[in-house]
Amino acid sequence: MARARKISKERRPMGPWILRIIKAGVIAALLGVMVLGIFVAMARGEIDSFEDLKASPNGQMIRVRAADGTVIQSLGPSFGRWLDINQLPAEMKDAMVAVEDRRYYIHPGVDPIGITRSLYARAIEGRWTQGGSTITQQLARNIYLNSNKEFGRKIREVILALAMETKFSKDQILELYLNKVYFGGGAYGVDAASRKFFDHGAEDLSLAEAAIIAGLVKAPSHYSPTADAQAAIDRATVVVGVMQDAGMISAAEAAEVKPADVKMAKQQPQDSVRYFTDWVLPQLDGLIDETEKPIDVWTTLDLKMQRAATAAIAANAPRGAQGALVSIDRDGAVKAMVGGTDYVTSNYNRAVTAVRQPGSAWKLFVYLAALEAGLRPEDMVEDKPVEIEGWQPKNSNGQYAGEISLRTAFAYSKNTVAAQLGQEVGTSSIANMARRFGITTPINTQPSMVLGTSETRVIDMTQAFASVGSNGRSITPYGISKVTTIDGEILYTAKPARSVQLVEDWVAAAMTDLMQTAVATGTGRAANIGRPVAGKTGTTSSNKDGWFLGFSSGLTTGVWMGRDDARAIGGLEGGRAPAQAWAAYMRVAVSGRPVENFATEVTFPEQLEGEDLLLGEGEEGLLLDENGMPIEGDPALEDPGAMPGTDPEPLDDAFIERAIGRREPRSSRDEGGLREPQ
Predict the structure, then answer these.
(1) Residue 444, Cα to own-chain centre: how many angstroms?
(2) Structure confidence at residue 419 (pLDDT)
(3) How far apart are CA 602 and CA 513, in angstroms?
(4) pLDDT tens string 578-632
(5) Which of 463, 223, 224, 184 minimizes the C-alpha distance to 337?
């Protein structure tokens, strides 16, 4: 009994502590509410009146200019008629509320359930996969804030949303939102969007059309019917499903909605310059804070070079293949960019987004690592059969040249020598060299990595070659030179990126020596343009990717060709179509530049007897790819001049998901249908 009484006495003090903690929590909560109320009251006084907000500009006019000042694209806001809440179709209002903010009519501007769900998903996934922003928060952000993902901005957004809910009715907020939100293509407000995409006013929107428009808010550029009609249809189907789930339409009504049958308005054709502007314009958010005044964005694009690049890809890409080109000046200025053979058919930018195997173009990093380790271009190596951990690399012609110089091995892209170099310097050293030169995609360190089995982007590979051409100093690509208001006020001026020495200048000079040989007498002879050129070809297994990258007269250009679904294509070898396109472009691009000799003393080797620079022929007459493997898949390869006689087959979606770098499963859909984190 005495022991029981003792335990009871020891536990007795816990009661007061629990009460104190509860009291402290209540007091803290009350103080928090009071402070929040003060901030909301202050914000309420700063919010414009409803009439003022109706009269304010819906968006910002942006004119994009080439390097010579020519306007190449105008993103000035397109305004439709202002429709009051009673003029807006019920289908449009219901679709927007369902997909963007299902609890819009019951929350006070901030949705605790949505925020909790977003935080829970963040804790489970380890990253933001779902957003919790309400329509009111989005309106506050669009009018008064920017889209930077910062905690402070999010707090201000919440305060403004709460203040708006105390100042305006739900109908007024929804009216402002539907007349101001951006729907892509320069269209602000549902009326402008309806006229742009369907060629009629918003008061006549059908349920299917309303679903397409409501689906655009999440990602206007991705779901735009003018950019990707199928993506817009798929997204609209999601919206209809969400409306049914929310009880806004019946199952029968949902079944009758056919987004695929919606008639779209005809759009003006887009030129390939859009690949470039699609790349540079998203960078504005990180460069300037101005979101209202009309602005001019001055870019590095050279229109003469851009026309030459477009023509070179169109004229040389094998039928059924896509092509991409990036051209970088010695200071990092991107002078031309082509992301595909036709922007109207596909606005997918293969120059900066797609990840593909570079093949033997990757040997740039293999030989850089070897040179840095002490090897010299004149050192002798042996081209012989090699086996490394069960892997037996072969040369493109299935033959071996015996003892040759390192320069000759590079010129003729000898795979067995590259494999031996990988063993000598270490694949980890090669991977580190690639990282040093700007490769941002994952790199494997298997022995076969020396032949370019790790995927990368065209712009990254071009940047790496440009850094070699800059005597081993880093080059950072950029596309915006300055941003001004239309009155001439300078908002941003590009500053030279910090340049660092990536390798000693003698290593870069020796690498240039090797690449000059590859063009003069080796696999890149099709890239000769009558002045000093240093470059390298690249061809992947079964001719699924073809590359040529090189520099001349201070300009570095990378060319890639292939199918989006990685099927083999005739004539795709790096020394054929890509090198020819490179030469066609560079002849124009450097025509006004002085001839520049490289600071190297090159001794060109004689052509090796029996070498076929384009395709090797192995035993039993089989054609071999650059990796010495039999070419399969495309009958046209038996005659490299013959191209497919039919339209390309449907693309492999799984491959494309991987090709655009989307290796992880897509995030689960929230109640709003895939809302992105804010």
Answers:
(1) 22
(2) 96
(3) 6
(4) 999 999 999 999 999 999 999 876 555 555 555 544 434 334 444 444 555 544 4
(5) 463
Q: Sorting pLDDT into bands at 50, 70 and 90, what band is 395?
A: confident
Point out which residues pair with 561 in neighbouring strands.
323, 546
In angstroms, the CA 618 to CA 116 distance is 63
In the block, which residue shows the tokens 């919606």? 262
Residues 6+ apart with CB under 8 A from 35: none
Q: What are phi and psi of 133, to 5 degrees?
A: -75, 135
Give the tokens for residue 199. Answer: 């060629």
Long-range contacts of 587-593 (CB under 8 A, 24+ apart): 587/529, 587/530, 588/304, 588/305, 588/308, 589/302, 589/304, 589/305, 589/308, 589/309, 589/327, 589/335, 589/336, 589/555, 589/557, 590/529, 590/531, 590/552, 590/553, 590/555, 593/553, 593/554, 593/555
Check pLDDT > 70 for residue 667. Answer: no
Hunting for tokens 């590009």 — which residue is that? 494
Residue 300, both tokens: 């590095």
Residue listed under structure tokens 């536990």: 11
Summarised one tens digit per residue, pLDDT across range 550-580 is 999 999 999 999 999 988 887 788 889 999 9
- pLDDT tier at 32 (50, 70, 90 boundaries)? low
Q: What Cα–Cα distance (Å) separates residue 653 from each residue in 98, 120, 148, 417? A: 29, 30, 32, 37
Q: Is 649 exposed, middle or buried (0-12, 13-18, 19+ CB in 10 A)?
A: exposed
Looking only at the bridges linking them, the beta strands covering 78-79 and 187-188 are: parallel
Beta carbons of 132 and 120 less than 8 angstroms apart: no
Distance CA 117, CA 126 (A): 14
Give the integer Cα–Cα distance in Å for 237 and 322.
30
Q: What is the DSSP string of 558-602?
A: EEEEE-TT----TT-STTTHHHHHHHHHHHHHTTTS-----S---
> Would you call 644 helix, strand, or coil by DSSP?
coil
Handedness of CA 268, 273, 279, 283 (dihedral sign): negative
Q: For 416-464, write each residue's pLDDT tens digit.
A: 999 999 999 999 999 999 999 999 999 999 999 999 999 999 999 999 9
- Residue 147 host element (H or E): none
pLDDT recorded at residue 341 = 93
Task: Please name which of 458, 656, 640 lies closest in space to residue 563, comparing C-alpha atoms.
Answer: 656
- Buried b / exposed e over 484-509, threshold 16 CB at 10 Å, is beeeeeebbebeeeeeeebbeeebbb
- State both tokens at 571: 């004539």
340 phi and psi, to 5 degrees? 175, 175
Torsion of CA 354, 357, 359, 361, to 10 degrees: 40
The reported pTM is: 0.63
Q: Work out the end-to-end distance of the chain between its first and last CA atoms, rounded to an integer number of angstroms.
A: 62
- Asked if residues 478 and 332 have their Cβ atoms less than 8 Å apart, the reply is yes
Residue 299 has pLDDT above 90, yes or no: yes
Close Cβ partners of 573 (under 8 Å, ≥ 6 residues apart): 537, 539, 543, 546, 614, 615, 626, 640
75 — phi, psi (to 5°)? Answer: -110, 20
CA distance 216 to 231: 10
Q: Which helix (H) or strand (E) holds 72?
A: strand 71-74
